[in-house]
Design goal:
alpha/beta; Rossmann fold; 2 domains; 11 helices; globular; binds 2'-deoxycytidine-5'-monophosphate
Length: about 230
């Protein structure tokens, strides 16, 4: 058994806009555990591929890109959001866009791309514990996690949350477009053959439609500290 196997893991999986990012960050802070934002890894690879002008449907090129892209998470000195460095460039803002999300979702359906990112994800498992945010955390990457949650919310509510976030950032989007994009991404993430988006059999299912952030955080914390 590797030494990290004894480190407790809480997996938080779910579709885009389910609040996973915010909830995972808050829960990790409360527990004093590390955080893995696995979506950022797929976004970073998609971004690096775009920056090099590669074709996202070229399996060999995407696999090489996933194997060679250097991704680093760096705590911001002022305590604000963690910065994500992709091949040395701070790409934090670019990675948040819908374009980056769609590129991530496209390359995430390539099995060899997923394989290339496994070790990087496992390396996050360090004491005193890990909160792992993604789509396949409880099913594929950390199937032995002691605590598993699956967060969801209606597509309409998720589109509204995303709309609010993007508007606050000054980006121009429409609610209808966002909802269409979210539904398309859900369908692709749930229907791919490798590691599709689905709750682990032993995950606690939480529908966050109509719930406030603090209520969801409390529900998730109760899974770890009943
Ligand atoms: O969580 P996110 O929106 O940042 O993820 C972006 C895309 O990356 C998502 O549409 C599917 C993919 N992804 C994945 O396939 N597996 C993960 N563990 C995390 C993200």
């Amino acid at each position: 058994m590797s030494p990290s196997a004894s480190v407790p893991v809480l997996t938080i999986d779910g579709p885009s806009g389910s609040g996973k990012g915010t909830i995972s960050r808050r829960v990790a802070e409360k527990l004093g555990w590390r955080l893995l934002d696995s979506g950022a890894l797929y976004r970073a690879v998609g971004y690096a591929a775009g920056a090099e002008g590669l074709d996202l449907s070229d399996v060999d090129a995407m696999t090489r890109c996933a194997q060679t892209t250097k991704i680093r998470f760096q705590a911001a000195p002022d305590g604000s959001d963690t910065r994500v460095l992709v091949n040395g460039h701070d790409a934090t803002e670019e990675l948040r866009t819908e374009t980056a999300g769609a590129a991530a979702s496209a390359i995430a359906s390539i099995p060899s791309v997923r394989q290339a990112l496994v070790d990087m994800q496992l390396a996050f498992r360090k004491a005193p514990g890990l909160v792992a945010d993604g789509r396949d955390m409880g099913t594929v990457i950390f199937p032995d996690a002691a605590y598993k949650v699956f967060l969801t919310a209606s597509a309409v509510e998720r589109a509204k949350r995303r709309y609010k976030q993007l508007k606050e950032k000054g980006l121009s989007v429409t609610l209808a477009t966002l909802q269409r994009e979210i539904e398309a991404r859900d369908a692709r993430d749930a229907s791919r053959t490798v590691a599709p988006l689905k709750p682990a059999a032993d995950a606690v299912f939480i529908d966050t439609t109509g719930m406030g952030i603090e209520d969801v955080v409390a529900k998730v914390l109760a899974v770890v500290q009943p």
